[in-house]
Amino acid sequence: MKQYRTMIWAPLAVMLSVLPVYADDLPNPEEMGPYPVGVTTVLLEDHSRIDALTKGPRPLMTEIWYPATDDTRGMPKNKMSDFYLKGTHQGLATALKMAFKVDLMELDKTFENESVRDARVRDGVFPLVLFSHGNGGMRMQNAFWCDHIASHGYIVVAPDHTGNASVTTIDGKLIPMNPAQREASSADRPKDMSFLIDVMTRWNAGADSRFLGKFDIEHIAMSGHSFGGYTSTKVADVDPRVDCIIPMAAVGIGRVNYAVPALIIIATEDDTIGVAGNAKMREYYEQSTGPRVLLEFKNAGHFSFTEMFQFIPDFGDGVGKGKRTSNGEEISYVPKKTVYRYTNGFSTAFLGKYLKGMDGYDGYLAKNPDPSELIHDAKLP
To answer: Rounded distance, CA 230 to CA 187, Å?
Structure first.
């Protein structure tokens, strides 16, 4: 494994506890990486399963972020409507407005992301990172994170979990969230993610010429938010191809794999999973036997780790203002800039170490960069 020389970004000792620490030949994990980012949408079908809603092979509308060629720089960025048939399905726009109270065309004017639709895939070999959305969420709900990770040299794959996504489209038909399918989704979700590993393995072998030989299929990570955090831990339990996990705002119970390297991301003021849910996350961290990092945002809520800042800025539970779960006092939640900075930074450093062998990120992972906002612990070999 390549050895890196550690460099500290500050001459003043008093600043050491708050400034990044990592090898000087590695990218700053908190900033966008060296590669422009492309994004593309594909419908994939698992013919080994029959979907309860469509009555056909299990369909997964899937988003893929990836390092793109240099001519991507300066090209127009992806629009929010591009994720949804480029806004051509009127029923879809209506469903999204009902779910999130946003006008899809208006959101196009302000939507922030860093990817370019259907850009050319860059030459190279990149580890696979899977992302699973929350209950009633959507595959692009963490576009900020997917963009960032892809820019550091990974291919990020995120599906709509059919029946548990807020709304998705299959062959032009709207498939809204079906609350009755939540229990079934607990079983479907890990299978969805393992199926995607199977598909990307076939793509890497030539099933999709764009991605021929582009995956480092021997190095795979799994992440997700809320129900997706649960999913990431369950996939680690059942699929030995997963090398490390990054669950955000939830974990599974009834654990099997205690040794998988894990970055556990918690919101102290999470009003969705509540105090009990956060206790389960801390317990998951403490019971782990493998390398692990805990990153807890003192003033974040459940949706701080999502794009809800762009959809409904006063949504609450991590976005805008709300009340503390501990004492009911009013709180202005941690701003997007702060929560994205450290969520992206720690995720990038963690993946760098456990998928790419970049030991030069050890210093970053081991320190609390902002004790005023973060509770941090790390148990690294």
So the answer is: 11
